[in-house]
Design a protein that fits this description.
Blueprint: H1 2-9, E1 21-23, E2 33-36, H2 41-49, E3 54-57, H3 70-75, H4 79-90, E4 94-97, H5 100-104, H6 109-118, E5 124-125, E6 128-138, H7 139-150, E7 156-158, E8 164-171, H8 177-184, E9 191-194, H9 199-211, E10 217-220, H10 223-239, E11 247-249
Parallel strand pairs: 2-3, 2-11, 3-4, 8-9, 9-10
Antiparallel strand pairs: 1-4, 5-6, 6-8, 7-10
Helix pairs in contact: 6-10, 8-9
Length: 259
């Protein structure tokens, strides 16, 4: 199953990649495939309830991009790690990461999925695959649209809600300050939509831009809803390649709630 997915994506495997088996292995028999944005315990429980024991996840299993916490948490008998690993073992789950390959496709399938959900397919700016020339709106209206379109229960934004917006950068997930700033600082970009960031970096930069009177806005969608649509669309495209087994997209719940 994993080989079929990798072959369909058709991108060279990075020399160093996180696209590895996180639980189980390639020789284990499986009976159904669950694609998901993040293999939370809740997602794993719902996959098992549907009879799906191969979980293909975009994000890590044990709370670190390169799974560096796995051995430490196991050695310390961390109760959260223990509950999750015991559930995986009990149900003989195979968990495989699918992160680098979907970002390395052209266009980036995660960015493309978010843009499609926002209604911006075809608005990509030539040569700048994360910048979109969008119909004129305001920062506040765009924030409301993004929350609805992406199912973001706890979206936040920085800037004047009446700021005119016609050019938007889209960087779902976590791209880091260097890449966030490179887009937001462009004079021809009005707003940047991101999944999350360190608040002392991108958020502070956007707040200072607003205080300086610059026409800039930042929309923080939340990591899960920012990448969910891209992974869902990827699952839809790959489902037809996996004949004979049930295949489903198991959405990750946005864990944040507003008071």
């Amino acid at each position: 199953m994993v080989d079929l997915v990798d072959a369909h994506l058709g991108v060279p495997r990075r020399e160093t990649t996180v696209d590895e088996y996180l639980a189980g292995g390639p020789d284990q028999e499986v009976h159904g495939v669950a694609f998901t944005m993040m293999a939370t315990l809740d997602v794993l429980q719902r996959a098992v309830a549907q009879g799906l024991d191969l979980v293909i996840t975009h994000e890590p299993l044990y709370f670190h991009h390169r799974e560096e916490w796995n051995a430490t948490l196991a050695a310390e008998a961390d109760p959260v790690h223990g509950a999750k690993s015991a559930f995986i073992a009990r149900h003989r789950l195979v968990v495989r990461r699918l992160h680098d390959a979907v970002h390395d496709t052209s266009p980036d399938r995660i960015v493309d999925g978010a843009a499609h959900a926002l209604g911006w397919t075809g608005f990509e700016r030539a040569g700048l695959p994360t910048v979109f020339d969008i119909p004129a709106t305001t920062l506040g209206a765009l924030a409301e649209h993004a929350a609805r379109a992406l199912g973001a229960a706890a979206l936040r934004y920085i800037g004047d809600p009446d700021l005119p917006v016609t050019a938007a950068g889209v960087q779902p997930g976590f791209w880091g300050f260097e890449k966030n700033r490179a887009v937001l600082a462009r004079p021809d970009v009005d707003v940047l939509l991101i999944g999350e960031s360190n608040e002392w970096e991108t958020a502070a930069y956007a707040a200072d831009a607003a205080s300086a009177g610059l026409a800039k806005g930042l929309i923080v969608i939340g990591h899960v809803p920012s990448e969910q649509e891209g992974m869902s669309a990827t699952a839809d495209r790959l489902a037809a390649l996996l004949p004979g087994l049930p295949v489903a997209f198991v959405p990750t719940e946005d864990p944040f709630r507003l008071l």
